[in-house]
């Protein structure tokens, strides 16, 4: 028994020692609820409730993290639907977000459009016209949904035709704010009117789609496009007065692109605060989950594959971006620093070494490259954040630890180590309270039962 424990300790030595280094800064924060750190908290929030972006966190979380800090400028380099930059804007900050998925920035821009200058009566009138246009029997075949293999048969035939009519109607709208809102309305109901459900790693399919599906699962009766749109447009109308009160004059800068290339364009010490949640290292594929929305927005199979590669590596399909980063950054010291941190991070290398030894037992060997790629890219992101945050500035990061083949990857500790090697001080790692009898110490040591879900708080010295 003791010798087995010694063996277990031996393969975890570097991770245990990293845990010991940070142990006094890890604590359970009672106020962090699952609702607060997830999209759940936005379910009732005006504007943020339109697009069900389940990967998001709540505006209340951002507000509570930022309320203690005197920040004037704000950045979220993985801004999704804009929860953080919009909230920071509301709090009077000059804010910015970077997001690679067009679904995210579309949603944020729709909220900004609804709050600023959109004519309420005009919106109401045009919405009614849009719904009325769906009653027509005519549709243009060149407006039909351009399916790719992973979206084929997602909609009943009538819905396919209605989507073509809606697209034609929205295409012909000239006012850019109105067009943005109507596009968002259409995109936001695609899941609801389809035979699919976003479910963990993949889309779940209802057998009525005619696809071969192993599990018998059925959605309730699907609404027609007109019914679903009517509801969403009504919600938008309802939210508008509150949005205008909340977000009027809030105009976050929303960058469409990858943080892996965009962060380097930002000046040193230009942001006082960052609240962000990068993709987790958990194989989750945004391009599969949001395939319907991406295709509606004009993505074909090739562009979707390219987007998958451009996203921060978190799937087994992602290839190394080292060469791409070398092309972007050349011999810039910050990139060399990121590579060195990754290659020399002993807890990470220890976990990778065990996974390589166990490669033949892994359900997918590419999890090894997933983990290596994830940390290489995050090392660069963390280094860039350390550069662009002003002295005394704060970085809050929301992320989950992961486990592959029984090997815990302590994402919180590894990223906090990168932060400290890059000039940020790790002030705290707050974990969610996940049940009785699990002190944070136990959670760290015996991570087999509990994987930490955390908010990290890093601060730049000075200021
Ligand atoms: C956990 S979600 C954050 C959601 C956001 N906090 C919200 O409330 O909507 C991570 C986001 O990172 C985005 N992302 C992935 N790779 C990226 C990259 N290279 N550059 C910028 N954004 C990226 C994903 O599309 C996703 O929206």
CATH fold type of the largest domain: Rossmann fold
What is the arithmetic mean of pLDDT? 93
> Considering the protein shown, what is the CATH homologous superfamily of the largest domain?
Vaccinia Virus protein VP39
Structural class: alpha/beta
Identify low-pLDDT runs: 435-439, 441-448
For the CA atoms, what is the radius of gyration? 23 Å
Number of strands: 12
List the ligand species: S-adenosylmethionine
Protein model, in words:
By secondary structure, this protein is α/β, with parallel strands linked by helices. It has 2 domains: about 300 residues, Vaccinia Virus protein VP39 (Rossmann fold, 3-Layer(aba) Sandwich); about 130 residues, no CATH class. It has an 8-stranded mixed sheet with strand order 1-11-12-8-7-2-3-6, with helices on both faces. A hairpin with a 2-residue loop joins strand 9 and strand 10. Helix 5 packs across helix 8 and helix 6 runs antiparallel to helix 9. About 5% of the residues have low confidence. The site of S-adenosylmethionine has 24 residues, from helix 4, strand 3 and helix 10. S-adenosylmethionine binds next to helix 4, strand 3 and helix 10.
């Amino acid at each position: 028994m003791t010798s087995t424990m010694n063996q277990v300790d031996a393969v975890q030595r570097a991770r245990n020692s990293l845990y010991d280094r940070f142990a006094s800064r890890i604590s359970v924060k009672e106020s962090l609820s699952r609702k607060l750190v997830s999209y759940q908290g936005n379910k009732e929030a005006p504007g943020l409730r339109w697009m069900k972006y389940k990967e998001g966190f709540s505006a209340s979380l951002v507000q509570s993290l930022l309320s203690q800090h005197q920040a004037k400028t704000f950045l979220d380099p993985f801004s999704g639907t804009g929860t953080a930059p919009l909230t920071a804007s509301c709090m009077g900050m000059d804010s910015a977000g970077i997001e690679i998925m067009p679904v995210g920035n579309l949603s944020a821009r729709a909220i900004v459009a609804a709050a600023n200058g959109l004519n309420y009566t005009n919106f109401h009138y045009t919405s009614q016209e849009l719904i009325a246009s769906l009653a027509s029997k005519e549709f243009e075949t060149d407006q039909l949904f351009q399916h790719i293999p992973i979206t084929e048969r997602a909609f009943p035939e009538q819905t396919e035709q209605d989507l073509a009519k809606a697209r034609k109607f929205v295409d012909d709208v000239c006012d850019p704010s109105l067009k943005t809102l109507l596009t968002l309305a259409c995109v936001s109901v695609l899941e609801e009117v389809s035979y699919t459900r976003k479910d963990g790693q993949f889309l779940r399919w209802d057998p009525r789609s005619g696809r071969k599906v192993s599990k018998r699962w059925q959605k309730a009766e699907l609404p027609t496009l007109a019914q679903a749109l009517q509801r969403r447009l009504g919600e938008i109308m309802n939210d508008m007065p509150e949005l205008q009160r909340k977000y009027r004059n809030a105009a976050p800068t929303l960058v469409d692109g990858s943080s892996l290339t965009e962060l380097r364009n930002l000046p040193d010490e230009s942001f006082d605060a960052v609240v962000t949640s990068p993709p987790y290292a958990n194989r989750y594929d945004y391009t599969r989950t949001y395939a319907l929305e991406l295709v509606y927005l004009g993505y074909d199979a090739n562009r979707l594959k390219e987007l998958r590669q451009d996203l921060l590596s978190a799937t087994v399909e992602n290839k190394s971006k080292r060469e791409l980063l070398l092309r972007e950054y050349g011999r810039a010291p910050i990139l060399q620093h990121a590579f060195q941190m990754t290659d020399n991070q002993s807890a990470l290398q220890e976990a990778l070494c065990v996974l390589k030894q166990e490669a033949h037992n892994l359900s997918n060997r590419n999890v090894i490259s997933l983990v290596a790629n994830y940390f290489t890219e995050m090392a660069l992101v963390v280094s860039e954040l350390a550069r662009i945050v002003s002295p005394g500035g704060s970085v809050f990061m929301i992320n989950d630890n992961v486990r592959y083949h029984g090997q815990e990857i302590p994402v919180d500790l590894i990223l906090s180590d990168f932060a400290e090697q890059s000039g940020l001080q790790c002030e705290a790692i707050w974990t969610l309270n996940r049940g009785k009898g699990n002190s944070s110490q136990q959670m760290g040591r015996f991570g087999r039962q509990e994987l930490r879900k955390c908010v990290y708080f890093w601060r730049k010295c000075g200021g």
